[in-house]
């Protein structure tokens, strides 16, 4: 069998993978884990010892970082779990469009116009209210597994 008989078709985009493997027994509270294909923040971990020949099992309770839904999973502690690459970036708010999209200023001086206003009512009120008052607002955008969402806002005051 020669080397040129293998053809692999890559479906991944250029750049880093969306997740990385980590042994279940090493994942702790306040870390991140993928449960049911959703990126979650771990809020509870319990490890149970099993019978004579069984594996210890880890019971994870996580909150979806985008929807806020509670998800649970049980994994043998020696097995690998997917852990999402979670990034948090700050952008200055420039404008809010009529259709609910925001225009953000990036560090490089460009604009980012593909994000919607958050669905969380208190955060939405803070952003809209501050913008209407003419405050200089910086929004924190959390991104993981190809999704992005505004998760926080702060007033940086007048320069």
UniProtKB/TrEMBL annotation:
Annotated Translation initiation factor 5A C-terminal domain residues: 85-154
Ranges for region Disordered: 1-21
Protein biosynthesis listed as a keyword: yes
Keywords: Hypusine, Initiation factor, Protein biosynthesis
CDD domains: S1_eIF5A
Stretches with biased composition (Basic and acidic residues): 1-12
Molecular-function GO terms, alphabetical: ribosome binding; RNA binding; translation elongation factor activity; translation initiation factor activity
SUPFAM superfamilies the record matches: Nucleic acid-binding proteins (SSF50249), Translation proteins SH3-like domain (SSF50104)
Presence of the UniProt keyword Cytoplasm in the record: no
Biological-process GO terms, alphabetical: positive regulation of translational elongation; positive regulation of translational termination
SMART domains hit by this protein: eIF-5a (SM01376)
PTMs per UniProt: eIF-5A seems to be the only eukaryotic protein to have a hypusine residue which is a post-translational modification of a lysine by the addition of a butylamino group.
Pfam family, one: eIF-5a
PANTHER family the UniProt entry points to: TRANSLATION INITIATION FACTOR 5A FAMILY MEMBER (PTHR11673)
Family: Belongs to the eIF-5A family.
Cited function: Translation factor that promotes translation elongation and termination, particularly upon ribosome stalling at specific amino acid sequence contexts. Binds between the exit (E) and peptidyl (P) site of the ribosome and promotes rescue of stalled ribosome: specifically required for efficient translation of polyproline-containing peptides as well as other motifs that stall the ribosome. Acts as ribosome quality control (RQC) cofactor by joining the RQC complex to facilitate peptidyl transfer during CAT tailing step. Translation factor that promotes translation elongation and termination, particularly upon ribosome stalling at specific amino acid sequence contexts. Binds between the exit (E) and peptidyl (P) site of the ribosome and promotes rescue of stalled ribosome: specifically required for efficient translation of polyproline-containing peptides as well as other motifs that stall the ribosome. Acts as a ribosome quality control (RQC) cofactor by joining the RQC complex to facilitate peptidyl transfer during CAT tailing step.
Protein name per its UniProtKB record: Eukaryotic translation initiation factor 5A
